[in-house]
Amino acid sequence: MTLSQPGPIRALVDGSLQTLWPAVCAACDRPVADEALFCAPCNLSINPLVGVCPGCALPAGPTPGEGPAWLRPGASPGRCRTCRRVPFPFVGATGGFEYGEALAEALMRMKHGGRRYLARRLARLLVQPLAEALARGQLAATDAVVAVPLHAHKLRARGFNQALELARWALVGLSRAPSLRPPAGLPRLERHLLHRARPTRELGHAGPAARLAEVAGAFVVSDTARVRGRRVLLVDDVFTTGATFSECAAALLHAGAAAVHVLALARAV
Ligand SMILES: [Zn+2]
Ligand SMILES: [Zn+2]
């Protein structure tokens, strides 16, 4: 082994780190086997989203008149009634998992417990949903992935933007997964395109109207020339009511984006 062989060296370093810090569950710190993210009890609350509405990523009931055909395995569901009545400004939404117990806990520990390293681990869950979102939105190498931004004050306090970390590591994961990598190439992660111009409060269990009012006009695009004509995939950790995604999408579309799709690791259902 020589120093010009990063693979074995990295494996060696990773191996010793593993010995020093044995793998633990991202939600509760119980020891876990090998590369597992969650321990067995926590894993019970990790539910991938399947058969969801392509407009809002919520489990959609069968549309009247379409009957049980919708429920056939492999059938792609249509938009839910809410999306047909009041469409979001973004074209489509992809969610990874239900915003359940363990995932909520892991995200909270990452964001509010100063555990930035969890972003890299949790991003593993986002690789496949990212591949799906890019395919659905037909994003190519010239298009853009944009993380929902934090306000500068919050960014300073937290030290990192969880959405950006998740997007960054999921893109790295996808670039290393030949079976999932889109043939048109990976779009670029654009870090400084979208800004939160004023601080907004986190509204806990507030409904869509209150949330929309809180974030109205909060986002601005710094360089419209870099947005014009590009398709954008917006990434966040959690999709709650879609108010933040909607405001970000509106700002990007106003700046000339060709289309906006959104992707969240967790979807509040
Ligand atoms: Zn656990
Ligand atoms: Zn919907």
| Overall 3D form | globular
Assign the CATH topology of the largest domain. Rossmann fold
Helical residue percent band = 25-40%
CATH structural architecture of the largest domain: 3-Layer(aba) Sandwich
**Hey, roughly how much beta strand do the residues contain?**
5-15%
Which structural class best describes the helix and strand composition? alpha/beta
Beginning-to-end CA distance, first to last residue: 51 Å
**CATH C-level of the largest domain:** Alpha Beta
What is the number of helical segments per DSSP (H or I, 4+ residues)? 10
The tally of strands reads: 7
| Count of distinct structural domains | 2
Order of helices and strands: HHHEHHHEHHEEHEEHE
Taking the sheet with the most strands, its summary is: 5 strands, parallel
Ligand list = zinc ion
Give the SSE layout:
Layout: H1 6-20, H2 40-43, H3 81-85, E1 92-98, H4 101-112, H5 117-122, H6 127-136, E2 144-147, H7 152-158, H8 162-175, E3 188-189, E4 194-196, H9 208-215, E5 219-221, E6 231-239, H10 243-254, E7 259-267
Parallel strand pairs: 1-7, 2-3, 2-6, 6-7
Antiparallel strand pairs: 4-5
The structure holds zinc ion (2 copies).
The site of one zinc ion has 9 residues, from helix 3.
Q: Could you write a compact summary of the structure shown?
A:
This protein has 269 residues and is α/β, with parallel strands linked by helices.
